[in-house]
Amino acid sequence: MNEYYEILGLKNGASKEEIKKAYFKMVRKHTPESDPEMFQKIRRAYEQLKDMDEKAASGPEFAPLTDPEQIRYLDEVMTLYRKGSLEKACSICEEACAFAPDEVRFLYLLNDLQDKCGYTGKAVKSAEKLVQKDPENIWYQRRLAYACYERGYMKKAFPVFKKVYEMGARDLDFILMFADECDYYGDYIRERAILLEILEHKEKWKKDEFPDFVEIFFHLFSGADRFGTELEVLRLFSDFVDGHRSLFSENAALAVNLLDEHFFRDTRNEVKERMLHILDTFEAASRRKEVREDIHRYKEEYRYGQIQYDDRFLEIFKIACSVFCFYAFEDDVCRRYAETDVKLCMLMQRGEVLGQTKLLETEYPALYEKLRDFFEILEKSENPGYLKEKMKKDYDRMDAYMHSGYFYEWYPEEKSTGSVNVIVDGYSDMPFVRNGKKVGRNDPCPCGSGKKYKQCCMRKNAV
């Protein structure tokens, strides 16, 4: 602890006010741009000596009021504030500012009420007055930064945010607004630095801060492609998940959406390993059964679906993944048609398919297992032509009414020019069942001619 006091040039046991003054003096001398290493030491020392979370939750200190009329105004404003009558409280606070223009407490309250009532233009003006009264007050500068941000004065807000950051503001609300400002101005290096600093130094996260955590990583993931640091950020996220499992007990689904948006299409091995590890952790940490089931389904989709974006594999493998792993078929005939369609296409690309089976077994073992038996047939078949014709015979009967496969679309020359006998309008694996009793050769003809069936309509039906 002594070294932190030494960095700030203080004696042991210095007061909070002394620590704050020393910090402000040091960060002006050693800015992040001019001396980043020293700036980090100063920041770390200040954070160890002063509870930043407690500081962020409080506010500026004001001297107690002594004037009875000012006390009356303050009581009335605070009573209305607690009741939720913000418009009326704002109006009374304006009267108090006019009555006691030198009492900065009322101006500070007025700025807060204007912000809550949506009077963004007025809030900017009152914040500017606060800063004029005390330019070195971090709380007044924060008010001005927030007011400009809410009003949409991004150009005006940016330098104020930088100043407040250098003065020591590190609470999540401030950092996330500052990150938005940096992103708006294209200052991605600063944006990344302030977000990483929060993750590095904030030891405990509350459950109600989880949306803030997600927003921090949303910024980091979105900016990772600018610096080629996607893996670095994913590693950071993975390590954070491992150290804060309880934080995801009720919020895992939100984090899954964040990962899905940025990493589902990334086929690098380390990304896949990290993703599956994170998803396993989410599934184990989630308290609700339906959430665990959703995450498990997503994990399976991710495990199979990665091949869709893997350029090393033939297109037919990507179609096979959809057919054998994802599709929910209406009936067995539809399933059999789709699977036969895939296998016929693989048969036509036999050499290339067999050349990729080892890689498929390594990279996507679950899909490989579903096709293992067919791969063995492909490899051992001495007469692929006979195998193809045998499969086509069954396929053609189904294709006669489905017409939705890839086989004839990719290989139109394989389509038979002859007609296919379709006994019923639609193919079925069920045996044919005759309606009514069979008419015998010597039975009276059903047409009513009075002749025997063999001497009448039997001949016509035989033509």
Low-confidence stretches: 51-57, 418-435, 459-463
N-end to C-end Cα span? 106 Å
- Considering DSSP H and I runs of 4 or more, what fraction of the residues is helical? 55-70%
Could you give the order of the helices and strands?
Answer: HHHHHHHHHHHHHHHHHHHHHHHH
Which sheet architecture does the biggest sheet show?
Answer: none
Strand content: under 5%
Cα-based radius of gyration, to the nearest Å: 37 Å
Number of strands: 0
Indicate the mean pLDDT. 83
List the total number of helices.
24
Structural classification: mainly alpha
Give the overall shape. elongated
Structure description:
The chain contains 24 helices and no strands. The chain has 463 residues and is mainly α. α11 runs antiparallel to α12 (188-201), α18 runs antiparallel to α19 (332-348) and α20 (350-363) runs antiparallel to α21 (365-380). The chain is elongated. The termini are far apart.
How are the SSEs ordered, and which strands pair?
Blueprint: H1 2-7, H2 16-29, H3 36-49, H4 52-57, H5 68-83, H6 86-99, H7 104-117, H8 120-133, H9 138-151, H10 154-167, H11 172-185, H12 188-201, H13 210-227, H14 230-243, H15 252-263, H16 269-285, H17 289-305, H18 315-326, H19 332-348, H20 350-363, H21 365-380, H22 384-402, H23 407-410, H24 457-462
How would you summarize what this structure contains?
This protein is mainly α and 463 residues long. Helix content is 69%, strand content 0%. Helix 8 packs antiparallel against helix 9, helix 13 runs parallel beside helix 15 (252-263) and helix 20 (350-363) packs antiparallel against helix 21 (365-380).
